[in-house]
Amino acid sequence: RVERAAKSGDTKMKKELTILQQYRDALLEGRNARTVQVNEDDKAAVADLQLLTAKPVIYVANVDEGSIHTGNKFVASLKNHVKDEQAEVVVISAAIEAQIAELESTDDRVVFLQEYGLSESGLNKLLHASYHLLDLITYFTAGEKEVRAWTIRKGWKAPQAAGVIHTDFEKGFIRAQVMSYDDFVHYKSEAACRDAGKLRSEGKEYLVHDGDIMHFLFNV
């Protein structure tokens, strides 16, 4: 269909045909669609095809305990094999993860990880990789009754972020009071952040950052 339209002189269809041919060539060569280097707008040409190998992928390499820091020859081979896929490669040790899962205390888990020279579990590494691959970030809302984490796309503005909580928040958005997670941990309270000048008022054009703690003001 696109080829016929391109032959008729349609400039848009000519460009789309070129993109489709790039994907076709890659697939015929046995490569995943993820390896095709096109910009985000051009990917729309194949969106309706729902190509399975175009979907984002995380490769999880399970290694022995001794290879958890450096990996091994198999991890190196895997990374080399998928280097053009824009995929994530996460190295974990299932044996270590199984032992962590048996520990009920958070403090015990921290001590256990330190004994292996690790700062976080493999599960946490996998979660971070997932968020990075999907361009996701988290912001928080906090009150006396509960603290909630909200997942949004990187690059969203404050009204869009507010809409995740309720559509009325986005429609009637006025402004947001914002402080960073790191500042809150450092100064211990919202009042202390305000006194230190770390609590600020942001408008509709504010780009939400990972770890922001936000309070939305709106009117409907």
Determine the fraction of residues in helical runs and give it as a percent range. Answer: 40-55%
Radius of gyration: 23 Å
Per DSSP, what share of the residues sits in E-state strands of 2 or more residues? 15-25%
Mean pLDDT: 94
- How many strands, which pairing sense, and closed or not: the largest β-sheet? 3 strands, antiparallel
**Termini, distance in Å?**
48 Å
Widest beta sheet: strand line-up: 6-5-7
How many helical stretches?
A: 10
User: What is the structural class?
Assistant: alpha+beta
Query: Which parts are unreliable, with pLDDT below 50 for 5 consecutive residues or more?
Result: none
Shape: flat
Helix-strand pattern? HHEHEHHHEEHHEHHEE
Number of strands: 7
Summarize the structure.
With 220 residues, the protein is α+β, with helices and mostly antiparallel strands. The protein is 40% helix and 19% strand. It has helices spanning 2-7, 11-28, 73-81, 94-101, 106-115, 122-133, 158-165, 167-171, 181-187, 190-195; strands at residues 58-62, 88-92, 136-142, 147-153, 173-180, 200-202, 212-218.
Task: Characterise the protein shown here.
- With 220 residues, this protein is an alpha+beta fold.
- Helix content is 40%, strand content 19%.
- It has ten helices and seven strands.
- A three-stranded antiparallel beta sheet has the order 6-5-7. The chain has a two-stranded parallel sheet with strand order 1-2.
- α3 links the parallel β1 and β2 (88-92).
- The longest helix is centred in the first third of the chain and has 18 residues, at 11-28.
- The termini are far apart.
